[in-house]
Write a structure and sequence with these properties.
By secondary structure, the chain is α+β, with helices and mostly antiparallel strands. About 15% of the residues lie in helices and about 40% in strands. The protein contains five helices and eleven strands, in the order ααββββααβββββββα. It has helices at about 10-15, 35-50, 130-140, 145-155, 300-305; strands at about 55-65, 90-105, 110-120, 125, 185-195, 200-205, 225-230, 235-245, 250-260, 265-275, 285-295.
């Protein structure tokens, strides 16, 4: 954003004090949007370079909710999803999933493949413990990727609601800052902000290119937009919010990061997600928290390049 020349020095000082970045440099070398995006891109690339496999324990509380009803507001519609029902809103169903959650580096600018292995539903064990997903990549074979994908697909059946969803990935929006992907998006400065008391630039992004990175189960483009909270000085991503929506479906995924001293970088601390289909009265929400991060350094790139057997 470029500041217009002010007739008075006081007006120029007031503009700079407002916290809006300018294309020029202040006495304290205020960064430009290009500076911050470059730092964020370097930060995201650093994620790829520092680990090949990251494992965490995920606790994921999901709920099916019915929005509060106002019978006088009319019939069911997109703007009145509870209309026409005499009962009030609230939680219809709740469950807690515990899973091993893996991020496996693809390499070559491809980001990471996510894998979720659910081993407990509402306190009931459904699979053997013992890092079975991690072991597939610690001792990789040609069939490792195929078996890990089957475990991931099996775990999705525990999700509440009838909607198929695979974008509940805490680090997904982080990849939109990767140099190989960033050109697909328009990014602009929105405001200065704070995340858990830490100063940040809040950036807005919109996916411009087609076909889109995310599609519906029927192959329709599902463009994404949202916000990114970035430490302007270092490029560290503190929080992301991603919305994927069209006239039929809306999904929102928000992730907050925290510093992990043992790993010496920032990791997802909390993911909140929301899903609503036009033809459904109820909405599905979730809150996932992450703990016990472990990092492995293994040669998994060759397995991923070769893919499953056959």
């Amino acid at each position: 954003m470029t500041a217009r020349h002010a007739a008075a020095a006081g007006l120029a000082l007031a503009f700079l004090a407002s916290g809006v970045p300018t294309s020029g440099r202040s006495a304290q070398a205020e960064p430009t949007l290009a500076d911050v995006l470059a730092r964020a891109a370097t930060y995201v690339r650093g994620y790829e370079e520092r680990f090949s496999l990251l494992v965490a324990e995920e606790e994921y509380v999901q709920e099916i909710r019915r929005p509060d009803n106002n019978p006088s507001a009319g019939n069911l519609s997109r703007t009145n999803p509870g209309g026409g029902f005499s009962t009030g809103g609230g939680v219809r169903k709740r469950q807690t999933l515990r899973s091993d959650y893996l991020l496996v580096r693809v390499g070559g600018g491809g980001g990471w493949l996510p894998f979720r292995d659910t081993f407990q539903v509402n306190g009931r064990r459904v699979a053997d413990r013992g890092d079975r997903l991690a072991k597939l990549f610690l001792e990789p074979t040609v069939g490792s990727l195929d078996r890990a994908s089957r475990i991931m697909a099996d775990s999705t059946r525990y999700n509440l609601g009838s909607m198929t969803r695979t974008i509940n990935i805490p680090t997904l929006a982080l990849l939109f800052l990767h140099p190989d992907v960033r050109g697909r998006f328009d990014v602009s400065f929105a405001a200065t902000d704070q995340v858990d008391g830490k100063p940040a630039w809040r950036l807005e992004y919109h996916e411009r290119d087609r076909p889109t990175l995310i599609k519906t189960t029927r192959g329709r483009d599902l463009p994404v937009y949202g916000e990114l909270w970035v430490d302007a000085a270092t490029g560290t991503v503190l929080k992301t919010m991603m919305t994927a929506a069209d006239p039929v479906i809306r999904a929102v995924v928000t992730t907050t990061y925290r510093a992990d001293d043992a790993l010496d970088f920032w990791v997802p601390a909390r993911m909140e997600d929301y899903y609503k289909a036009l033809n459904d009265v109820d909405e599905v929400t979730g809150v996932a928290t992450y703990a016990n991060y472990r990092r492995f350094t293994v040669a998994v790139d060759e397995v991923i390049r070769r893919g499953p057997p056959g």
